[in-house]
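Fold Annotation — chain and its backbone
Next Lines — sequence and tokenised fold

***
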Amino acid sequence: VRSGEVGGNLEVTFKRLTDYVEKEEEFRNSVRAALTYPAFVLSVGILTVVVLLVFVIPRLVTMFEDMGQALPLPTRMLIASSGFLLSYWWLAAAVIFLAVFIFKRASAKPQGKMYLDSLRLKIAVLKDIILKTQISRLMRTLSLLLSSGIPIVYALETATVTLDNEILKAELKKFKDRIREGESFSKCLADSKLFPVFVTNIVTVGEESGTLEQSLLRIADDYEREVDRSLKVLTRLLEPLIILAMGIVVGVIVRSMLLP
């Protein structure tokens, strides 16, 4: 908005801001929609297991005791698990609460956040999606700022704030110093291991043809479509896997109950 006021093109800036916010919201909604069903299936599966352990198995324990015979090992293990959950549910809740608390405290600190972000980028399935999501947001923000007349160094500084990944942020801070010394944005991207060749090539063409803002928008649009496709494929794989895993767990519990 400030750059629009200074340049005398506030109406154009508002239009660009509107498009930017709408695209960001649309992208976030597509990610949420893709992950909602797997999360729901997993939650129902966990709830089913808890109900079996807490409410169903204790009612059968009395019947097993009346039988007066040695119970199979799986059944004894199941009864022990159910008894532990009934007697020490508060301990399990405390451990979960403590684990969540420690995770949040660690991720709130710069070193902890850096380590967790580095760990996420080492997971094969997540790396591609995380990088493309972050690069898409970076390029869309940069395009908005550059088209509003903000110099590349200041645009990078502002765009970096919109990112979540600390590894990528640290890389972009190096870019700013190198660009101040006279290097091009495309050269910085080419030397980085985080940015794919596709991004470097498109930015190079944009710099040479004087259409960098449009080139950055193209990268953002392409990567948003790719992330959307990747998430749909991933969720289609996750859904049967979660159902299968929960089916196996419930099946083992039911089998252990029926063995005696």
